[in-house]
Amino acid sequence: MEYIIYFIIAIGATTAGAMTGMGGGVIIKPVLDVLNQYDVATIGMLSCITVFAMAIVSVMKQIQQKVKISVKTALPLSIGSVMGGNIGQVILTAIIARLGNNQIVLVVQNILLALLIIAVFFYMLYKNKIKTLGLSGIIPSLVAGTFLGFISSFLGIGGGPINVALLIFLFSFGTKTATVYSIVTILFAQISKLFSVAFSTGFAVYNLSMLLPMVVGAILGGFIGSWLNKKLSEKTVEICFNGVQVLVFTICIFNIVKNII
C-alpha cells in the first residue's frame, strides 16, 4: 500500500511539474513533509532523484517533438543551475548539521516556499500589466540559472514556480516556452545536487526504500506532462500553473502550523 501511495504522489506531481515547468519537487517536498516518514535530508534526496527522472524524460520528449531551444540561452542557464545547485546543497547540509533539528529546517523551508509562491502567484496574475526585461545573452542566463539552481537545491523542491515566473520576467518568454527552459534548468540543477552528494556523504546515509515506485511514477509523469504541455493552450497551462501554486501554498501552511503548534 505504501508503494502505491508514493507512486501516486510521484506521478501526480511530475505530471503537473512537466506540464507547467514546476518540476514536481515543489509538490513532492511539502507532501512528504506532511507524511512525516523521513527526515529533511532524505525527503530532499527522494524529491531530487524523482524530479531528475522526470526531467530526463521531459527533455527527451521535447527534443523528440522538435521544440526549439536556444543553446545560447539554455547552456548558460544549465551551467548556472549546476553552480547554484552545488551552493544550495552545501549550505543546506551545513545548516542541518549546525542546527541538528529537522523540524526547524522544515518550517523555514516551508515558510520560504510559501512566500515565493505568493510572489509568483500575483506576478502570474498580473504579468500582462508588468513590463518584462527582454534580456538575452550569456551573463543574464548564467546569473538566472545560478539563482534558480540554488533555490531548487536549498529548498529541496527541484525547481518550482519561481523558475517559470523569473524566466518570463527576465527573457520575455511565453509561459509554454518558459516551461521548456525551466525543465532544462531543473535537470542540470538535480545533476549538480546528485554529484555533490555522491562525492560528499554518499547515498547510503539516506533511506531510499520508496525510490523505485517514485522513479517509475516520475518517468510516466514526464511523458504525460510533456504531452499535455504540447497539446494544451497557453491559457490552460497558466490556469494549471496557478492551480498547483494554490495547492502547494495550502500544504506549506499546513506544514508550518503542524510543526509550530
UniProtKB/TrEMBL annotation:
<feature type="transmembrane region" description="Helical">
    <location>
        <begin position="203"/>
        <end position="224"/>
    </location>
</feature>
<feature type="transmembrane region" description="Helical">
    <location>
        <begin position="236"/>
        <end position="257"/>
    </location>
</feature>
<keyword id="KW-0472">Membrane</keyword>
<protein>
    <recommendedName>
        <fullName>Probable membrane transporter protein</fullName>
    </recommendedName>
</protein>
<feature type="transmembrane region" description="Helical">
    <location>
        <begin position="164"/>
        <end position="191"/>
    </location>
</feature>
<comment type="similarity">
    <text>Belongs to the 4-toluene sulfonate uptake permease (TSUP) (TC 2.A.102) family.</text>
</comment>
<keyword id="KW-1003">Cell membrane</keyword>
<feature type="transmembrane region" description="Helical">
    <location>
        <begin position="7"/>
        <end position="28"/>
    </location>
</feature>
<feature type="transmembrane region" description="Helical">
    <location>
        <begin position="138"/>
        <end position="158"/>
    </location>
</feature>
<dbReference type="Pfam" id="PF01925">
    <property type="entry name" value="TauE"/>
</dbReference>
<keyword id="KW-1133">Transmembrane helix</keyword>
<keyword id="KW-0812">Transmembrane</keyword>
<feature type="transmembrane region" description="Helical">
    <location>
        <begin position="103"/>
        <end position="126"/>
    </location>
</feature>
<dbReference type="InterPro" id="IPR051598">
    <property type="entry name" value="TSUP/Inactive_protease-like"/>
</dbReference>
<feature type="transmembrane region" description="Helical">
    <location>
        <begin position="40"/>
        <end position="61"/>
    </location>
</feature>
<feature type="transmembrane region" description="Helical">
    <location>
        <begin position="73"/>
        <end position="97"/>
    </location>
</feature>
<dbReference type="InterPro" id="IPR002781">
    <property type="entry name" value="TM_pro_TauE-like"/>
</dbReference>
<dbReference type="GO" id="GO:0005886">
    <property type="term" value="C:plasma membrane"/>
</dbReference>
